[in-house]
Amino acid sequence: MKRNRIVLLVLLLVFTAVVTGCTSTGGQQAASETLSKADASGEDTQIEGTSPSDVSEDSAVIVTNGGSEIRLSSLEYYVESEDAPVVYYLSDITPEAMVEIYNALEWTPTGRVAVKLSTGEPPASNYLRPELIADLVQLVDGTIVECNTAYGGSRSETAMHYQVAEDHGFTDIAAVQIQDENGSMTLPVEGGTVLSENYVGAAFADYDSYLVLSHFKGHSMAGFGGAIKNISIGLGSAEGKCWIHTGGTSRTSFWGGKQDAFCEAMGDAGKSVSDYLGNGERIVYINVMNRLSIDCDCSGNPEEPDMHDIGILASVDPVALDQACIDLVWNSEGNRSFIKRVESRNGLHTLENAETIGLGNRSYRLVDLDD
After folding, report:
1. Which letter, b or e, does each residue of 172-211 get, where b requires 16 or more Cβ atoms within 10 Å of its Cβ?
2. What is the DSSP string of 147-210?
3. Domain segments of the chain as ranges
4. Which pLDDT score is estimated for 330?
5. How far apart are CA 284 and CA 274, in angstroms?
6. What is the chain's Cα-based Rg?
7. Are 44 and 38 in contact, with CB atoms under 8 Å apart?
8. Is the peptide bond before 130 cis (omega within 30 degrees of 0)?
């Protein structure tokens, strides 16, 4: 009888361990494993643990712009520590919400203010529309700034790029400057992984403060694009874009670099920008999670999104901000193609390196302004 009780106790412990292992969530790693199984079977499988119906009533949740409920506890890098950088969230994607989330940052720009964004590649890219951002741009009395591309297209030459900015309505809401119209200036990279210098537009230093408005989306080469991409490739001159894409091996060729070196170079270049701007004191970031295509705004004909819009996020930490966006994507319906795009380019390595070199922190505290 005693022996039977021992056997039953062992079986009960084994059963409990199995159930616990099956019901736990493993963040992005578990999502990736589930995704791989779905790819192998050819099924369009929703990642386990992310269904809105699974949200318990007593869990802290955010409700996205598309109506989905996401548990804060399911966001892999979300923490409750008061020491973690704050990422603010609003589900509304409106001009009023842009101003509200900016005000939540309690940041006061000094001197001449640049608003960095993508002017968008014609004819049909998903750039942030002027009517969405106009109130905020005018609130900070900002000049919209951008740099020429290094891959051809309608924005590779300054005159054409100004025409695109006009055609897309940006000149109707603010002054616009193509910062590498007169070439490049060099920024030192302190403690970078692959870069020791970075090349931005020659007019970069004409501005004292930077408000970075990014459309968060996928990217054909980087896997995803958000705040880090916008202050690295985005602020890079045509020369600087080549330098970053090749991991610091060429200033004239756009192609031929190693993928991990490219991801690392983005963080390195971004750190040079943040360091120059008072170690991050004179730059803040807003990511808009709408039109979540797997393709960047540098594509004039991007893939249609599989995902619903999520909302607007803002932070003074670009790494925390991009990580929060990734976490939200990983926990949203219709995310399969987006995750595949990020993983196929090893896109999360950008965040790994950016944290390692001190650009920011992946852990963050999410503050839901909808509450």
Report:
1. ebbebbbbbbeebbebebeebbbbeebbbbbbbeebebbb
2. ---SS-STTSSHHHHHHHHHHTTGGGTS-EEETTTT-EEEEE-SS-SS-SEEEEETTGGG-SEE
3. 59-368
4. 98
5. 10
6. 22
7. yes
8. no
Phi, psi of 129 (to 5 degrees): -70, 140
Round to the nearest angstrom and report the end-to-end CA distance of the chain: 58
Beta bridge partners of 210: 114, 283
Give the residue from 132, 125, 126, 131 showing the smallest Cα distance to 102: 132
Rounded Cα distance, 268 and 197, in Å: 9
φ/ψ of 225, rounded to 5, equals: -135, 130
Q: Could you identify the residue written with the tokens 């950088």?
A: 85
Residues in the chain: 371
| Alpha-carbon gap, residue 349 to 33, rounded angstroms | 18
- CA dist 146 and 127 (Å) reads 13
Nearest Cα neighbor of 273 from 195, 352, 200, 191 is 200
Say what angle helices 336-344 and 318-330 make with each other, to 10 degrees: 130
Label residue 371 by pLDDT band (50, 70, 90).
Answer: confident
User: Hey, is 74 helix, strand or coil?
Assistant: helix
- Say yes or no: domain 59-368 is CATH 2.60.120.380: no
Distance CA 53, CA 301 (A): 35
Model pLDDT for residues 70-117, shown as the tens digit of each residue: 999 999 999 999 999 999 999 999 999 999 999 999 999 999 999 999
CA-CA distance, 145 to 180, in Å (whole number)? Answer: 10
Reported as a single tens digit per residue, the pLDDT across 264-282 is 999 999 999 999 999 999 9
Helix (H) or strand (E) holding 285: strand 283-289
**Token code pair at residue 206:** 């004409």
Is the pLDDT reported for residue 45 higher than 60? no
The identity of residue 350, as a single letter, is T
Which CA distances in Å does 160 have to 139, 149, 150, 296, 297?
28, 11, 13, 20, 17
| 3-state secondary structure (DSSP) of residue 351 | helix
pLDDT of residue 46: 33
Are 312 and 286 a contacting pair, CB within 8 Å? Answer: yes
Instruction: Give the global pTM.
Output: 0.86
